[in-house]
Amino acid sequence: KTWTTDAFYRETKNNKESRVKDGCICVEMECSALQAVCDFRGLQLYQFVYAADSLNDTWLRRILGEMENDSRLAYFGLAKQVALKL
User: pTM higher than 0.85 for the full model?
Assistant: First the structure.
C-alpha cells in the first residue's frame, strides 16, 4: 500500500505511524491527482513508481541527493519501455 498526500510537510510522526499500521510502505504526492484527472477524462493511467520517500524509521534522501543521475535516467528508460509495450 502507498500513502498518497499533497499536503506539504504533513508527514508527521503520528500520521506516519497510522499509515504504517494501515500497511503502507511508502508515501507519494502525485498519483492520486493524476488518477483523478484520468477518471474525470475517462482515461487509463499506468503509474511507474520507484523508491524516493520511505516510511521506515530512518529517512533516506535517495532521489533528493544520493542517487546518481545515471540511475534516474535508467529508471526513466525502463518506464518508457514498459509504456511503449502497453
Answer: no
